[in-house]
Each structure stands twice: as structure tokens, then as C-alpha cells.
Amino acid sequence: MIKVMIVDDHVLIRKGIRLLLENYPDLDVVAEASDGAEAITLALKVEPDVVLMDLSMPDGLDGFTAAKEIMAQLPAAKVVLLTMHDEEIYVRKAIHLNIHGYTLKKSHENLLYEAITSVNKGERYYKTGFPEEQLNKLFDDQEKESILTNREQEIVRLAMLGFTNIQISRQLSISPKTVENHKTNIMQKLHLKNKHELIRYGIKNHYLDLSI
């Protein structure tokens, strides 16, 4: 039996999803939450296997923030974002946060069941309006980015903003020589030749967007 929690600020949507899921004998809806804060509290209490999470919710705690907190505190729990948003920036953010699944509210009932059972088995499940080739590229970009440490990623972002090595060193409280060493490592890891290629890499991979 897969324990499922539904998170959405619209009660009718939550009830509708519950009715759909009750058609499957191997699913058990153990909780419903109306916002991100309640989702975190309930998740810690009922420990669901899968959380169906809306993105846009009231009170300043969106689905991304709630999902990140739940995954941090309940590593065994899987999160599927169930949303109307089909824009690349949202999908890219979900991939960046290592969220297990992403599907649209307009999806067919069978796809919702497929999403739940797939992520529960440890599989990745992303069904969007994007062509499969474009979606695979987003995952490839994330894999390349994960090669860099958090400090190296921050240096790339600051370089994109036009900071010099001295300015970056002051911003990060490290020496200019350390900044230069980090940049050398970054260039070697990404197989880049110069600053212009580094900037193009950062733009192509939406480094500035990842802070949203």
C-alpha cells in the first residue's frame, strides 16, 4: 500500500484528486494539506510515501520550498509536483532541487497513478508539454552543473554578473588567488577555454534563474 498525501490550496481540487486515487486499491490517501507549512507538519506526522504537491499556494510557502523541506526531513518520501505550470523555468527549478516527479493538473487520471507508482519505485517521472529531447537536455544540463561544487557555482554566477577576481574574493571572503584556482578547476571540469566560454555556459544553463 502506497501512502499518499495531497497538497493543494483548493479544497475541491484536493477532494477531486482523492476521489480519483480511491479507485486504486494499492493507494491510500493518508492526509490533505492546504498550504506549504501545513504540508510539512502533516508529512512529519503521517510520513507519506508520496506527496502530490501543488506549486502555487498562499502564505508565502510555495510548493518548491515545502517540497525541499519535506525531502530534507523525510529522505524516504517522494515528491511529485502537480501543477498547471508548464514553463521551462519551473521544470528546470524542479530538476535543480532533485524533485522526483513533475506532472500537469490537466493530465489524465492514469498518468497521475503512473507518476505515484513510478516515483515510489525510485524512478524519475516528468511528464510535461516539452518534447522528450528538450526534457532530456534539461536533465543533462543539471548533471553537468552538479559537477561543480556550490562554491564553484557561486563563482560562475558572480563572474556572469561582471565581478572581477578581487571583487569575488571580497564577496566570498577568500583570497584572489583562491578565486583564480577555483576558476581554473571550473574551466578544466567543463572543458572551457576562456572567460567568454564560461559566461556563455552560465547563460545557456540559466545560472541566474536558479535563484528564483
Written account of the structure:
The chain is α/β, with parallel strands linked by helices. The chain has 2 domains: 2-132, 3-Layer(aba) Sandwich (Rossmann fold), CATH 3.40.50; 146-211, Winged helix-like DNA-binding domain superfamily/Winged helix DNA-binding domain (Arc Repressor Mutant, subunit A). The chain contains 10 helices and 6 strands; from the N terminus they run E-H-E-H-E-H-E-H-E-H-E-H-H-H-H-H. The protein has helices at residues 11-21, 36-46, 63-73, 88-96, 109-120, 132-145, 150-160, 165-172, 176-190, 195-204, and strands at residues 2-7, 27-33, 50-53, 78-83, 101-104, 125-126. Strands 2-1-3-4-5-6 form a 6-stranded parallel beta sheet, sandwiched between helices. Helix 8 crosses helix 9 (176-190). The radius of gyration is 20 Å and the shape is elongated. The mean pLDDT is 88.
Give the secondary structure arrangement, pairings included.
Elements: E1 2-7, H1 11-21, E2 27-33, H2 36-46, E3 50-53, H3 63-73, E4 78-83, H4 88-96, E5 101-104, H5 109-120, E6 125-126, H6 132-145, H7 150-160, H8 165-172, H9 176-190, H10 195-204
